[in-house]
Amino acid sequence: MIPVSVLLLFLAAQFFPKNRTNPAGEVGADLFAVAEVPVEIRQILERSCYDCHSNETRWPWYSNVAPAGQWLAHHVEEARHHLNFSNWEKIAEHRRAKLMKEMSEEVAAGHMPLHSYLWLHGGARLSEQERAFFVNWCDTRRAELEEELDEPR
């Protein structure tokens, strides 16, 4: 009886899909249009960050199967809320500096990309060299942003 109930719940969950969209961003509003980003950093961001932290999510096949699809859509929604590279231009400069600091800390500590993401996306894993390069870029960019904020306008 329990296996049948579980199967029925699984089937019923398929009728309640979570919204899996990629909202259209404004032209020229993403990070690459606003800041000079080295090719190596761009590749890291696109490979390891953009699926969750941009409007360019590549939704895998399992995003169509509940409950994984609901969990994944919710996760992407939260990630975009915290940091969305597609809306970088809309973020105030002081917030950008703070986000650069957070990105540096999260990547340096090995918290990003998430381990749960890496289970199925092994190509997103960062080497120690990539991690160090990314952290250095974030720290340098943050310092530049903070310097710009201190300059009188």
Describe the fold and architecture:
- This protein is mainly alpha-helical and 153 residues long.
- It has one domain (28-150).
- Helix content is 56%, strand content 0%.
- It is built from seven helices and no strands.
- The protein has helices at residues 2-13, 31-34, 39-48, 68-82, 93-108, 115-120, 128-150.
- α5 (93-108) packs antiparallel against α7 (128-150).
- The N and C termini lie far apart (71 Å).
- This entry's quaternary arrangement is single chain
Shape: globular
How would you characterize the largest beta sheet?
none
Number of helical segments?
Answer: 7
pLDDT below 50 for ≥5 consecutive residues: which ranges?
A: 6-13
SSE order, one letter for each helix or strand: HHHHHHH
Structural class category? mainly alpha
Q: What's the gyration radius in Å?
A: 18 Å
Number of domains: 1
Strand content: under 5%
Helix content: 55-70%
Span of the ends, CA to CA: 71 Å
> Could you tell me the mean pLDDT?
83
Question: What keyword list fits this structure?
Answer:
153 residues; mainly alpha
Set out the fold topology.
Blueprint: H1 2-13, H2 31-34, H3 39-48, H4 68-82, H5 93-108, H6 115-120, H7 128-150
How do you describe this structure in short?
The chain has seven helices and no strands. With 153 residues, the chain is mainly alpha-helical.
